[in-house]
Amino acid sequence: MNPRQVARQTLTFEKRLIDTLLCLLLVAMVVLACLQIGLRTFFSGGLLWADPLLRYLVLWCGMLGAVVATRENKHIAIDVIGYLAPEQVKPWIELVIDLFSSLVAALLTWAAIIFVRNEMLFGNSPLLTIPSWCWNLIFPTAFFLITIHFLLAIAADIRTLASLLRGSETGSGS
Question: What is the residue extent of each domain of the chain?
């Protein structure tokens, strides 16, 4: 199996894993929230651990949603320059934006690793016997995956630019 096939299979696995995990998290959140509402309404009580767990599940869904948005190139983009720029300049702008975004995501990955390390040393009390740092592992994981997806976008930008440059070379030579 060549490296491209391995990369493609890895990305397919990552896509399926995150999509499945997101669906499971959403179902768990809905069920747990409805259970809490029912317990509070009919029994004037609830599960003490449910609200903190729901907060973590929302956090996990948000971070995994950001990974999916980056993967699908549907993340928030404020790109006035790219909108107003001529068509031949837009691929270059995309490359610069993806380079900057990958750098920011890599820095956030590093900051998240430091955060989790500090949580391991000085962390809060556990939720459901799981230490707080485990719940916060989503930060470095998601930012790392976002960095990877931006690096893949850079590779695609470079391929696009290379094909455009080859096309302009053959077009100018005739």
Answer: 3-172
Listed in order, strand segments (DSSP E) in the chain are none
pTM of the model: 0.89
Token readout for 90 is 């837009």
Residue 153: half-sphere exposure toward Cβ, Cα within 13 Å:
26
Q: How many other CB atoms sit within 10 Å of the CB of residue 17?
A: 11
Q: Residue 77: which of 58, 61, 90 has the closest Cα? A: 90
User: How does the average pLDDT of the chain come out, rounded?
Assistant: 90
Rounded Cα distance between 125 and 122, Å, is 10
Q: Directed axis angle between helix 138-172 and helix 50-71, to 10°?
A: 10
pLDDT of 18 reads 97
